[in-house]
Amino acid sequence: MSKHSHPRSNIGLDYLGLENNEKAIWNLTPPELYEEAIENGEAVLTKDYALRVLTGKYTGRSPKDKFIVDQPSIHDDIDWGEINQPTDEEVFDNLFEKVTDYLQDKKIYVKDCYAGADEKYQLNVRVVSEAAYHGLFSHNMFIRPTNDQLKKHDPDFTVLAAPNFKADPEEDGTRSEAFILVNFDKEIILIGGTLYSGEVKKGIFGVMNYLLPKQDVMAMHCSANMSEDGDTAVFFGLSGTGKTTLSSDQSRILIGDDEHGWSEDGVFNIEGGCYAKTINLSEEGEPLIYATTKMPGTILENVVLYENREPDFDDTSYTQNTRCSYPIHYIPNAADDGKG
Fold first, then answer.
1. Are 297 and 326 a contacting pair, CB within 8 Å?
2. Would residue 323 show up in a list of annotated catalytic residues for this protein?
3. Going by fewer Cβ within 10 Å, which terminus of the chain is more open, N or C?
4. Which of the four pLDDT bands, split at 50, 70 and 90, describes residue 1?
5. What confidence score (pLDDT) does residue 3 get?
6. CA atoms within 13 A on the CB side of 181
7. Which member of 8, 52, 61, 186 is catalytic?
């Protein structure tokens, strides 16, 4: 497998202190990420060649382990409290140094991508993780650059993930072994102790929630679709309330299933993929979503498999929060440009 011929940015990993890591692999394709994830023991193939991943202890996001570094540049703009929990620079810097030291000799996967289908409000995203599965998830969930765009990619925000690194709460100032630290000044989201990929997705959404209103754009946790004549509908709701199901309507064009911006020009998807709950999923009830679970490239998270590798979407042995991640074009009637 060729690991050095992929398009990559001139912006290396020196800003992360990882310029000497000789095991960094850039912008692998989905088949290559499949191979890496299976070789690493992160995943297995299903009967229909989707990739099944078990995320271990954390099968959902850990909001109590997520902190924003309290800095003068953002202090007055954040509604601090139980949701937006503050931490200080010292905690971040200490853990950042520990994580980068930990990753120096590890194989790491770099995936450059975008958030925001409207180019005026687009965020250049880089995801760096020791998990190949995070690379495939990022490929599915964010907007995929062309090869020419990859060569010019200059990250605005970086997610640095070390799921196998565990914090010491007493020493590191965290609540548990898991941590998600958002540093707006350094433009880094630092993740450790959890493999759950939803932290990557929602970490970037949190950044967009902060940045977009400053550009007179409303950031929305919603799904959206439109009619053939451009009549757009948005469906608001918390995670697991049916946004993806409602927006996946065969008679309408899907804009996106979870994260959007609303500017003076209209509604646009922040993502390039869908992250659907699969609990009790059936072909009869949700045919479009069900079909994606049989497509190579789809990730099935914490889904039980029969001995023949057929998914059992009714089994909640691992969690009720079973999910599938797939590129939005797996839905036949998705908007090509992610805009409404």
1. yes
2. yes
3. N
4. very low
5. 47
6. 31
7. 61
| Same domain, yes or no: 272 and 148 | no
Look up the domain containing 284 and give its range.
Answer: 218-330
Residues 6+ apart with CB under 8 A from 156: 123, 124, 125, 187
61 is catalytic: yes
- How many Å apart are CA 17 and CA 67, to the nearest integer? 22
How far is residue 291's CA from residue 283's CA, in Å, rounded to a whole number?
7
Judge whether residue 169 has pLDDT over 90: yes
Kindly state whether residue 301 falls inside one of the protein's structural domains: yes
The single residue of 8, 111, 243, 339 carrying the catalytic annotation is 243
Q: Tokens representing 247?
A: 């927006």
pTM of the model: 0.96
Catalytic residue status for 258: yes
186 is catalytic: no
- The verdict on whether 98 is a catalytic residue reads no
Same domain? 190 vs 293? no
For residue 222, the domain's CATH number is 2.170.8.10
What are the pLDDT digits (tens) for 197-232? 999 999 999 999 999 999 999 999 999 999 999 999
Q: How many domains does the chain have?
A: 2
Q: Is residue 33 part of a domain?
A: no
Verify whether residue 314 is a known catalytic residue. no
Q: Residue 128 falls within a domain, yes or no?
A: yes
pLDDT at 177: 99
Active-site residue, selected from the candidate residues 6, 107, 175, 221: 221
139 and 200, same structural domain?
yes
Are 211 and 253 members of one domain? no
